[in-house]
Write a structure and sequence with these properties.
By secondary structure, the protein is mainly α. Helices cover about 75% and strands about 0% of the residues.
Length: about 80
């Protein structure tokens, strides 16, 4: 968990350095980074979706499900089922 947080802190610092060129806020950037990490873990690692969501920095699974669906167009469960068959 500490490694994930440190990685996100470093990513956020790089993001701030990029300045106003980007069209996303730092918060949106962090959420998307967490979603990318969770998508990778859903594809590669067995485990409960709720555990992956919490490990990736989401405070509850309902917010994670909503954000995941908005970003990827499908639920975490459907995403995992499609990739793992």
């Amino acid at each position: 968990m500490a490694n994930i947080a440190a990685g996100l802190d470093a990513a956020l610092a790089r993001r701030r350095d990029a300045g106003a060129r980007a069209s996303t806020t730092p918060h949106q950037y962090v959420v998307r980074a967490r979603l990318r990490l969770s998508a990778q873990r859903l594809a590669d690692a067995p485990g409960k979706i709720v555990d992956i969501a919490l490990d990736c920095g989401f405070e509850d699974v309902s917010n994670f499900n909503r954000a995941f669906r908005a970003e990827f167009g499908e639920s975490p469960r459907a995403y995992r089922a499609r990739l793992t068959g």
